[in-house]
Amino acid sequence: MDSYDVVIAGGAVMGSACAYWLSHMDGFSGRVLVVEPDPGYATASTALSVASIRLQFSNRINVEISRFGLEFIRNASRYLGKEGGVHDLCLRENGYLFLAGSDAQDEILRNNCALQRDLGAETELLDPAALAALFRFLNLSDVTSGSFGPRHEGWFDNMGLLGGLRRAARARGVDYVTDRVTGLQQDGGRITAVELASGRRVAAGALVNAAGTRGAEIARMAGKDIPIEARKRTVFIIDAPNAVHPDAPLLVDHTGFYLRPEGDQWLCATIPQDDPAVDPDDFEPRYQEFEDLIWPRLWARAPGFDAIKILRMWAGHYSYNRLDANAIVGAHPEISNFYFANGFSGHGLQQAPAVGRGIAELICHGEYRSLDLSELGVARILENRPFREIAIV
Ligand SMILES: Cc1cc2nc3c(=O)[nH]c(=O)nc-3n(C[C@H](O)[C@H](O)[C@H](O)COP(=O)(O)OP(=O)(O)OC[C@H]3O[C@@H](n4cnc5c(N)ncnc54)[C@H](O)[C@@H]3O)c2cc1C
User: Fold this and answer.
1) Atom of ligand 1 nearest to the CA of 155
2) pTM of the model
3) CA dist 191 to 226, 339, 357, 390, Å?
């Protein structure tokens, strides 16, 4: 049986970020194996993401995680080195614009804005007149306020980030294997070995669960439950020749959809009204969401969207934490060498640099050294103690 100090189940952005940080961390010289069934990442959330980053969260820790994500993305070529092969992750800092349509939503934006500014964000709280002056293409008749981050927010190259992390990890000796984790062996409250679909067995000093929507399956292999399920999100790329505003921000509308420029075109999606758990193999786009939920609201918000054509659409999955829609990060209290990096909803891409670093610190030093991620720990799941993030897009 082969033996590795750390086995990582899942080699998309989260698994590769863990591998990158482990292989670059002072004081760690162990062997790392990343097990990934699909090296083309056809259905990984990482590949199907809309790849945006913001500081506009409601929890202090999520703002701080994204602040480091931003620092990493801006300086990717320095962090990843020559081996990472990344020159530029093409960050477009157009900002995020959240719109509110009621007193209660105004208050949420006001509170979030104060927290974010306290942590170095440049979020501005704008009244309808100020919004109208900045965003002339929007109809704001039902809008009561908005929060806009003119800097430190935008979108970037998702597969560039993943490719860079992978290449930099491999260059430092991390092994990637095309296989699937199918079983775990334990002894005395520790994972001892990992079984793979090929029949191979690998002795493991530690295991990281970075299997995205399949995170609950991996946990069950050790007899543990985590409240993670797949939630479908359909993304539409549309052409709107009467509405060409490539400098527009990512708009999060209080009526439930979001929209951002994609070159001269637009990308949009909505939270479905009915949002059940889905089969993790079901990637059929829900076209009707555009007709019923997005287009009427989009046209009401911006009259330039009167004539549009859908150029393409795809469905991806949020790995959704039913307890509080926040990430689950850290060691399992009952299996000390079993680490979780799961449940990132629609913000895991930007969280990968900080979460990968945190998991590597836990494995290497037994504690967080840079950013304390303990609020996101597994203990709150076992104690049924929600730690909610309300700014979920
Ligand atoms: C439509 C959409 C829009 C999004 N927009 C954003 C955004 O704007 N900003 C942002 O930050 N985030 C966004 N996200 C979220 C982000 O993409 C995810 O949170 C992030 O990519 C999760 O990465 P991951 O590595 O945990 O999971 P994944 O990318 O899903 O990877 C999990 C990997 O595990 C592998 N795996 C599964 N089972 C096993 C097994 N048994 N053994 C070994 N490996 C296994 C899979 O093959 C897969 O490659 C979006 C997601 C979607 C779907």
Assistant:
1) 8
2) 0.98
3) 17, 10, 22, 34
What is the sign, positive or negative, of the torsion defined by CA atoms of 210, 172, 25, 90?
negative
The alpha carbon of 129 and the centre of ligand 1 are apart by a number of angstroms equal to 39
Ligand 1 mean position, distance from CA 303 (Å): 35
What are the structural domains of the chain?
2-87+157-227+324-382 (3.50.50.60), 96-154+231-317 (3.30.9.10)
How much is the pLDDT for 235?
A: 98
Which of ligand 1's atoms lies nearest the C-alpha of 341?
26
Q: Tokens 């993401």 identify what position?
A: 49
Write out the two tokens for 64: 């701080």
Work out the widest C-alpha separation in the chain, in whole angstroms.
68
Binding pocket residue ranges, ligand 1, CB within 6 Å: 9-10, 12-15, 35-38, 41, 44-46, 48-52, 180-181, 210-214, 218, 233, 235, 316-318, 344, 346-350
Sign of CA dihedral 141, 142, 144, 149: negative
Q: So what's the pLDDT on residue 94?
A: 97
What secondary structure letter does DSSP report for 92? B
* Mean pLDDT of the 183-197 span: 97
Distance (angstroms) between ligand 1 centre and the Cα of 226 equals: 16
> 55: number of CA atoms within 13 Å, CB side?
27
Q: Do 353 and 73 meet the contact criterion of CB atoms below 8 Å apart?
A: yes
* CA–CA separation, 50 and 71 (whole Å): 19
Q: What is the pLDDT of residues 235-281, one digit of tens each?
A: 999 999 999 999 999 999 999 999 999 999 999 999 888 899 999 99
Residue pair 189/336 in contact (Cβ under 8 Å)? The answer is: yes
The answer, yes or no, to whether residue 136 has pLDDT greater than 90, is yes
Q: 3-state secondary structure string, 51-70?
A: CEECCCCCCHHHHHHHHHHH
- Give the Å distance between the CA of 108 and the centre of ligand 1: 28
CA distance 70 to 64: 10
Length of the chain in residues, anyone?
A: 393
Closest CA to 302 of 131, 149, 150, 155: 131
How many Å apart are CA 123 and CA 95, to the nearest integer?
Answer: 9
The model's confidence at residue 122, banded by pLDDT at 50, 70 and 90, is: very high
